[in-house]
Write a structure and sequence with these properties.
170 residues; mainly alpha; 7 helices; 0% strand; elongated
Length: 170
């Protein structure tokens, strides 16, 4: 992994700027900006389907002896969609249909929009929540959850209390 990272960094931040000659500073800044924008965009798109406040998280013990039906319900309740125009979905590679992706991981992504109304109707028929909202709303919900999770209390399972003298967990 580190070899791949260093190779890519070498291309993005050394080779390509050098090939640009006198425009090297512009190419370097452009590559840095492009990588930052891409990373923020990918983060938003992926988090919007996984980390909303309404989306459930399940402990590993849930999967023990899980039936196929329970698996589908867990996939449904553990993911969310975001709505937007066709361009938004094309730009994001269709993860705006994360529920359908979790339910049908082998299906081609461009078909998710086609089956989404049917999945939603089945959810309504069985009284199951179908988490969806605008990209902006889902992003806000995601960051609210992340902020809430960051406010750990001392001694919580997420952030164990440290022994001040030794720097070890109690």
């Amino acid at each position: 992994m580190w070899k791949k990272i260093h190779t890519q960094w070498g291309k993005d931040y050394v080779l390509f700027p050098l090939l640009a000659g006198p425009l090297a500073p512009l190419v370097l800044v452009g590559n840095i900006a492009a990588n930052l924008v891409r990373n923020v965009w990918v983060c938003a798109v992926i988090f919007n389907g996984q980390f909303l406040e309404q989306v459930e998280q399940f402990p590993e013990v849930v999967i023990e002896n899980e039936t196929r039906g329970q698996w589908y319900v867990r996939q449904l309740l553990g993911s969310a969609n975001f709505s937007g125009g066709r361009l938004l979905h094309v730009m994001s590679g269709n993860p705006g249909f994360q529920i359908e992706h979790h339910l049908f991981p082998d299906m081609s992504a461009h078909r998710y929009a086609e089956i989404a109304p049917q999945v939603r109707a089945i959810c309504e028929q069985h009284g199951l929540l179908y988490h969806t909202g605008s990209f902006f709303h889902q992003t806000l919900s995601t960051w609210k959850r992340i902020a809430r999770l960051c406010r750990c209390r001392r001694g919580s399972p997420v952030l164990p209390r440290l022994n001040s003298r030794h720097g070890t967990s109690r």
